[in-house]
Amino acid sequence: MPASVLFIGDGLTANGLWSDWLPDYDVHNLGATGKTTDEVIAELDAVVDRRPDAVVVQVGSNDLGWRRSDEYIVRNMETVLCALRKRLPAVRILIVSVPPREREFADTVRSINHHLRQFAPTQHAQYLDLWSRLARPDGEIDAAYSDDRLHLNDAAYAAWVSELKPALEILFQRPPSSSAIPIQQI
């Protein structure tokens, strides 16, 4: 039986044809257009109920549209990762960077991704950096990957999948998490 991989996140996640692109896995997609980090937190019960082998989290871009700060978004993402680790201690977690979009958001997205890259290992999660693949030097999404500087086109999804496949292979080669060793009371 193939490993189950559950995608959670916003419209960028929802629009991915993950089952087609990842035929070696049992893929489920809970992404939805317009979803924010608050809504991902609210749906964690549904994630836990499915008991996937791995969770791929990609969210945050819509929070920027609501003018939420990098601190707010990072705090919510940390909440997602901590809740997944606590409630599904054996799940493998892959956190995907917030992708680039319009230049005005570049500094905020860089800050979010910097914090996520540092925080992910504390929850035994793997970080997947799409920013460096999709961004121009000024931080705006490369026009080759988006027609409107926000939504991803086919070339962007191809780039994502080319990074995602080896990341999932690595994710499944490693133990899902480390657990505390119980100490007997004497």
Automatic annotation (TrEMBL):
Domain SGNH hydrolase-type esterase: from-to ranges: 9-159
Record-linked InterPro entries: Ester_Hydrolysis_Enzymes, SGNH_hydro, SGNH_hydro_sf
Organism: Cryobacterium cheniae
Protein name: SGNH hydrolase-type esterase domain-containing protein
Superkingdom to which the source organism belongs: Bacteria
Gene Ontology terms, MF aspect: phosphatidylcholine lysophospholipase activity
